[in-house]
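FW: tagging you since you asked about this chain on Friday. Here's the raw sequence from the shared folder, copied in full. Didn't touch anything.
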Amino acid sequence: MSSDFEGYEQDFAVLTAEITNKIARVPRLPPDEKKQMVANVEKQLEEAKELLEQMDLEVREIPPQSRGMYSNRMRSYKQEMGKLETDFKRSRIAYSDEVRNELLGDDGNSSENQRAHLLDNTERLERSSRRLEAGYQIAVETEQIGQEMLENLSHDREKIQRARERLRETDANLGKSSRILTGMLRR
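HL: got it, structure written out here
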């Protein structure tokens, strides 16, 4: 089993060396060759991932007592693979920036225009944010005033209800008084 793993290791080492070499050459190639090189590197990265998967399967089949050494190797290979993918992304970004500049005819002067445009947009955004914040403050104050008014109205309602109850009691007492006085007058 370890001989299969070592064979995969050798293939992985050769493949990663080729990928590293090609990634380094990508920025210096003419546009037609860059496109072809990028496609080639993508394919080789997929092959390297498949090799890592095969190596991982081999490590799982190794007895537990000797698995530790192979697991450490696998970790370093996975880190190397991650570094290769990161380097490739960076070279592709540089490649795509060059293509964009060629297509748009950017010569670097537009970066100042873009910067000025971004600053204008930032100022506009800050003004809008301040207006929103002021509007929010007004809404909060209005809500507080409304809440105070509702509390005042609630207290006033209670007062009116108590006054109405007293009025009813007074009316009832006046009715009793009137009957008593009427009764007294009859006698």
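FW: The mean pLDDT is 84.
HL: agreed, and DSSP finds four helices and no strands in the chain.
FW: great, closing this out.
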